[in-house]
Amino acid sequence: MRIMTWNINSLRLRLPLVHKLVTNYSPDILCFQETKVPDPLFPHQALQDMGYPFIAFKGMKSYNGVAIASRFPLQPNDSPPDWCMKTDSRHLDVEILHPTTSFRLHNFYVPAGGDIPDPESNPKFAHKLAFVKETTEWFTQTPSKATILVGDLNIAPLPEDVWSHKQLLPIVSHTPVETELLTQWQKTIFVDAMRLITPPPEKLFTWWSYRNRDWRKSNRGRRLDHIWITPDLTTKLKTIEVLKDVRDWEKTSDHVPLFMDITL
DNA sequence: ATGGTCGCATAGCGA
After folding, report:
1. Which residues of A are annotated as a binding site for Mg(2+)?
2. Pairing relation of β-strands A103-109 and A147-152?
3. Phi–psi pair at A47, nearest 5 degrees
């Protein structure tokens, strides 16, 4: 079972890149963030034609948006939480119905939080902190077995998850209040699957800003995208790959896709 | 210290 996650920064614009990913890597399940497409305009047929008949999506005009495209049937949570009461298309919660081993899959797009790391003066940062507190509370009350969480969590928790721990400490995505909250969320029922495969001190990035002349040369990356699994799945975890080369594809996202292989 | 680049509601916002 290969599960891929990608902050695609417009699904419709990058459908050709999805096709290339499918051809090259053949994921069983694709999880997208920042689809930026309202539900009536969702490219359902294109994903079906690529071999994904089972699709869950939640979008809005211009911003946010999440989707899951699967080769296996899926069953969405029929009463998903409305995080921060904003109804802003940041989360999908589905059961993947696999012939031998079903599991629960969460796809998250956490608020980026704006530029100023102060909840008093920056409502976007306040929203980000409130969002992560709510998800933490919610996961303390959910079953702790056979669950996978992926997505753009917009926080790089470890010193080795950013190009310069010291320089990014006051930067939104790596401030102590954020990294502490993300750790608390993770500890509810999950372990960090990426760091089981690639432990520190090896650096691991999934995002490089559009604003660098040469992203590879400057390498000012951050690990904003994550794959978490419940402990019962760790023995089934085979590999995780961060598809760094996709950052060089034509008209690509500033995030790269990553996938996990698990034996079910 | 500043500005740098994307995508979508094609203007200014959010990232």
Report:
1. 7, 34, 152, 154, 254-255
2. parallel
3. -70, -40
A210 touches strand B (CB under 7 A): yes
At A10 the pLDDT is 98
Under the banding of pLDDT at 50, 70 and 90, the label for residue A206 is: very high
Q: Measured from the CB, is A220 under 7 Å from any atom of strand B?
A: no
**Per-residue model confidence as pLDDT tens digits over A141-171:** 999 999 999 999 999 999 999 999 999 999 9
Angle at A86 between CA A82 and CA A89, to 5 degrees: 70
pLDDT in tens, A178-191: 999 999 999 999 99
**Distance (Å, whole) CA A127 – CA A113:** 7
Q: Treating both helix axes as pointing N-terminal to C-terminal, what angle do A123-139 and A176-189 enclose, rounded to 10 degrees? A: 20
Q: What's the domain count of chain A?
A: 1
* pLDDT confidence tier of residue A113, bands split at 50, 70 and 90: very high
CATH number assigned to the domain comprising residue A233: 3.60.10.10
- Among A177, A79, A70, A173, smallest CA distance to A133 is for A177
Assess contact for A72 and A83: CB atoms under 8 A: no
How confident is the model over A27-68, as pLDDT tens digits?
Answer: 999 999 999 999 999 999 999 999 999 999 999 999 999 999
pTM of the prediction? 0.98
Token pair listed for A76:
């969405």
A52, A93, A109, A174: the catalytic one is A109
For residue A39, indicate whether it is catalytic.
no
- The alpha carbon dihedral of A15, A18, A24, A27 has a sign of negative
Domain hosting A65: range is 2-262
| Residue A111 Cβ < 7 Å to strand B | yes
